[in-house]
Write a structure and sequence with these properties.
Signal peptide: 1-16
Keywords: Pyridoxal phosphate, Signal
CATH topology of the largest domain: Aspartate Aminotransferase, domain 2
Strand order of the largest sheet: 6-13-12-11-10-7-9-8
Number of strands: 18
Number of helices: 12
Protein name: Alliinase C-terminal domain-containing protein
Structural class: alpha/beta
Domain Alliinase C-terminal: 71-413
Strand content: 15-25%
Distance between the termini: 18 Å
CATH superfamily of the largest domain: Type I PLP-dependent aspartate aminotransferase-like (Major domain)
CATH class of the largest domain: Alpha Beta
Family: Belongs to the alliinase family.
Amino acid sequence: MPSLLALVLLVPPALSLPSTCSQPADPCLPGGKYDPLLGKCQGYGGASCFGCYKGEFCDVLDAECTLGVGGGQPVLFQEYWETVDVCDETGMDFQTGRNIGESNYQPLEDQIRLLHANVGNAETEGYTIVLGEGATGVMNAVMYALAATSAANETRSVFAQAPYYGNYVAQTWNAMAVDSDLNRHVLQWDEAADVDSESTFEIVTYPNNPDGALRSPHVSPSRAVFDCIYYWPQFASVDRKMAEDVMLFSASKHTGHAGTRLGWALVKDAAFAGHMKDFVQRSLGVSMDAQLRQAYALAHINAQWADGGAHAYYEFGAGKIAARFDAVAALFADPETGQLRERNGVAMMNNGARGAYVWLKCADGVDCQALLAGEARVAGTGGAGYGVGAEYARLQMMARTVEMDDLLERLGDFLGGDSGDVTRDWRGMYGKEMWEGKEREGMTGGC
């Protein structure tokens, strides 16, 4: 835990320090979380428990249900913040988003620049920071700016190398800008576009979603938009400081605060950044609560550099992701050579790249998502959403630990391998023995 002195040194004067508070034991862990507003256990997405857990205190595992691991909710990182003795006191702000007009909320911008300098994953000097409602909102702003800066009779093409994040397609087609002469400027998604054309732009996810590959653009770097939301130490080896024209990041995949809905772009060209800000301002900017919450989270992480000690947050995330990938890879590994091989008609396609997702391939003509759901009771995301065939499927590695335990058992049973004991650390982490055989009491939490 970083010292308060370190936090004082790093948090700008305009950002008040959060107080420490003692959280009571949560009787719903590990299968759920107690919600003091509802007065009962909750999972996420409206569910009453995590994954396939059920019961009043989420302590019963339903082996017959289908485990959903197809989304990208980064709830793994909630497990880290549950261990941090800092109370979130962002409060409410009685004005609209602070990023409307001349500047962002300055303490947040300072923390973003300091963070990238500490991690070494992106250059910020000479860049404009554009905030948006999550990386999705920031990408929408990028698409608007691409349309707004096109010539009167120009239709710009956008593409990404498959497999790619499928949401890019709709974001491209939905982009439209209208100039002062009332001319409409639109984009088109075209995977066969001429990469040498000045009207062709490419989205490069770095590392790639879903397979973790580190790609180079097919177009000139000046016409590439880099989606870097996974370029953090918990997901990949940060081996270079990127200095691309447009780079996107998000609170969701970095700190796990998906519900905060905050993302940012580092934009080299000030005029292009101005068009992006014009788009963001249409919805009155980014919530002030969201900016304050992320400023606190980044101040906590930045303080770990000032202390000169362990980088606890990234070590937690990287350790969890590595252990999970190693456990899944072990199910596909040849016991003699250690090389990955096909098991029960399924192959792991990440090629050694750890990250937020496992990318699987079944035999040609086989619906991999349906196969896993039917035979392993594991619901992933099918390849059609990533510009490839149904023989591919994606499983996320950012689930809660108890869900990963369940996933490894199910995959192990289906593939005929040994899931081992890699991720089984929740009993020690949460002290569940406190609650086994005892009456649940004191179900009131919060600061």
